Amino acid sequence: MSKCAILGGKPVREKAIPWVGTMGKEEKEAVLEVMDTGVLSDFLANSGDKFLGGRKVKELEAAFAERFHSKHAISVNSATTALHTAVAACGIGPGDEVLVSPYTMVASASAILMNGGIPVFVDIDENTYTMNPSLIERWITPRTKAILTVNIFGFPGYLKEIRAIADKYGLLLIEDNAQAPGATVNGTEAGTIGDIGIFSLNYHKIIQSGEGGVLVTDSDELAWRCQLIRNHGEVALDELNDMETAVLGNNYRMSELHAAIGIEQLKKLDLFLESRRMLAARLSKALKEIRGLTGVFLPEGYTHSYYLYPIKFDRNEWKISRKLFADAVSAEGFPLGVGYVKPIYLMNLYRHKHIINEKSTFPFSMVDKLTQEYQKGLCPVVERMHYEELVTADVCRLPYTENDIDDFVEALEKVRSAQDELSGLGD
Asked: Smaller CB count within 10 Å for the chain: N or C?
């Protein structure tokens, strides 16, 4: 085996494969069709048909509802606003607690704060990186109103178990399914097991429209509240003389242009997933032969969407730091992510609890005693994964092929072989 590139040898590949979009002629034609109509958005913040948007928005929502077997789909302008819409639709208010994963994009928890709720972080399972159901009940208090679980990296999480706990305590269940469209649990679509689920159409997701998000739910009430929150709903409620519904809306509306792209991308979702799963299966098989690296754990009955491919690094086996390992693999032409995102509760905003300004500690000041202190050690598994063990590979996407996976495996094997030689473990 040739010398590892970080030691001066020739790399497996001179340049990393850049990210490329998934757009084709279908999306371009759909955009031009909308441009030709001159109607780039067709919402009005008044009661009436246009309160629910234009033709393309409604077409996208109908397609999402059909694809994911949901009664309702509501489009918005990002998955972040979808999360806030979901939290607000569930009636989360000042001082209410919502259980949430600490290992996710910050918006999953920020959405709770934006409505005056208090995030309570539940540690993750070390094999799936999703919320550990066995730890949930210890954090439930009389103030708990909902669970916001995150289907991370493309894995759906232990949704059946979490659903059962939510039902036991009368809690609402929100699924952040931004990274796992098309993943399933025993044939049921991720994003549809909770009371409400959110999907992302952000530019680097499995399907995308540049920016955008979609909520799905089987609840008529939640769907109506989402539609109100999306489009300055207090105006429509005033016109309808509705004195009972309490909602404060915003402009979270999706344009006709973004909806047109999303319609075409959704048609391609299953083809994209087929490709990602084929590449991931090849990588998973190869990783079983490389000492000190563990690939994706996939329980029976689950399917994965492989937004990213997480790999567990065993420092005791490698006898080098995780950073040096990642640097060596990157030198071979395959950049690796080291960890994912900083555990949310360790961010400065959560440590000092000044959400609005330097004087206010709202919403934390709404309760006499906080259920959690946001400090190191709160969630030991997520801290170990993030700071010591997890690396992520972005190789199960277009334009990667099976040959590229073989090259990636060769890069890992080169680094393994070089380290064995340096450690005196080689032949």
From this structure: C
Segment (H or E) for 75: strand 72-76
Q: Give pLDDT tens digits for 260-303.
A: 999 999 999 999 999 999 999 999 999 999 999 999 999 999 99
Class of residue 368 by CB neighbours under 10 A (exposed 0-12, middle 13-18, buried 19+):
exposed
- Locate tokens 């371009």: which residue? 28
Smallest CA-to-CA distance from 207 within 252, 157, 253, 154 is with 154
> pLDDT tens digits, residue range 49-99?
899 999 999 999 999 999 999 999 999 999 999 999 999 999 999 999 999
The residue assigned the tokens 């009005």 is 44
pLDDT band at 425 (very low <50, low <70, confident <90, very high): low
CA atoms within 13 A of residue 199's CA, in its CB half-sphere: 31
* Selection from 290, 281, 278 nearest residue 411 by Cα: 290
Sign of the CA dihedral running 45, 48, 54, 60: positive
Q: Using 50, 70 and 90 to split pLDDT, how confident is the model at 2?
A: low
Query: 158-166: long-range contacts (C-beta < 8 A, 24 or more apart)?
Result: 158/125, 158/128, 158/130, 158/131, 158/132, 158/133, 159/185, 159/188, 159/190, 159/193, 159/194, 160/185, 160/186, 160/193, 161/133, 162/131, 162/133, 162/136, 163/193, 163/194, 165/133, 165/136, 165/137, 166/194
Compute CA distances 150 → 163, 202, 302, whole Å: 13, 16, 15
